[in-house]
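Human: I would love a firmer grasp of how sequence relates to backbone shape in proteins. Take your time, and here it is.
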Amino acid sequence: MNQCFQVATRPIYQGKKPVRSARYLRFVKGFACAACRSTRGVDPCHTGAHGMSQKSPDTAAVPLCRSCHDSFDADPRGFAREHQLDIPRLIEKFNALWREKQKRSAA
């Protein structure tokens, strides 16, 4: 039972590339800010992990105005708590609305 094993030359961990969709981001941008309800200067805000070498998928974006977006980026949990936002539920809501829109446009 003295067998040699070849060392793998490819990376052990291969992370998935995050989903990118400019159309989805434009869709999210069309809504009012999820925190302050402003309709001016709304941007899609990526809510998942997106720190050092981490990327959040576009499907995890919610609409926030520039001011709220900056506050969210500074302290995501504190911002969500302060504005009583259930971020996972918001993501589900916008994804469901997107799927419904896709169904209507396909018909």
Q: What stands out?
A: The mean pLDDT is 88.
